[in-house]
Amino acid sequence: MLFFEMVTVYALGAMSYGAIELIWRGFTHWTMPLTGGLCFLFLYLIATRFHVPLWKKWVLSAAVITTVEFLVGLIVNIKLGWRVWDYSDRAFNLMGQICLLFTFYWFLLAIPGVGVCGQLRKRLFANRGSRREQS
Q1: Crossing angle of helices 31-49/100-120, nearest 10°?
Q2: Cβ atoms of residues 44 and 21 within 8 Å
Q3: 3-state DSSP call for residue 1?
Q4: Number of other CB atoms surrounding residue 62 within 10 Å
Q5: pTM score over 0.85
Q6: Cβ neighbours, 10 Å, residue 119
Q7: 67 within some domain
Q8: Considering the domain boundaries, does residue 43 fall inside one?
Q9: How many domains does the chain have?
């Protein structure tokens, strides 16, 4: 059932991030839901598998999301030249692919995100293993 859990979390993240992009920017690119799904899956794993204080989960989540954003940016924006986003005009940017402001946004998004992931695991997935063990 771990596969089902991970696929479900990825799909929820992909759909949610695509919706956030549409609301925030008014458009999205097909690579953004894919990237959002991956980021949400990492957020979920950090939220549900790491036993550290909440603030560390938030910081780690922001760092991981920023790293994914940078790696995807290197591929889709620099290597493929698709110009999905460009932070070159932002302060403290790295190659126009990430910037400090958006790392801060990922941190802020991680605060409710970690809680949502915990509830998601508790309500949808936590009892699956124990049900199997009881049969």
Answers
A1: 60
A2: no
A3: coil
A4: 22
A5: yes
A6: 11
A7: yes
A8: yes
A9: 1
Query: Angle at CA 22, nearest 5°, toward 17 and 24?
Result: 90
Per the document, the length of the chain is: 135
Q: What type of residue is 106?
A: W
Q: Is 57 domain-assigned?
A: yes
Task: Give me the torsion for CA of 78, 82, 85, 91, rounded to 10°.
Answer: 30
pLDDT tens by residue, the chain, 135 residues: 799 999 999 999 999 999 999 998 999 999 999 999 999 999 999 999 999 999 999 999 999 999 999 999 999 999 999 999 999 999 999 999 999 999 999 999 999 999 999 999 999 998 765 444 443
CB 66 within 8 A of CB 87: no
117: containing domain: 2-127
In a domain, 135, yes or no: no
- Specify whether the CB–CB gap between 113 and 61 falls below 8 A: yes
Amino acid letter for position 73 = G
Supply 60's token pair: 């780690």
Q: Is the dihedral of CA 11, 12, 13, 18 positive or negative?
A: positive
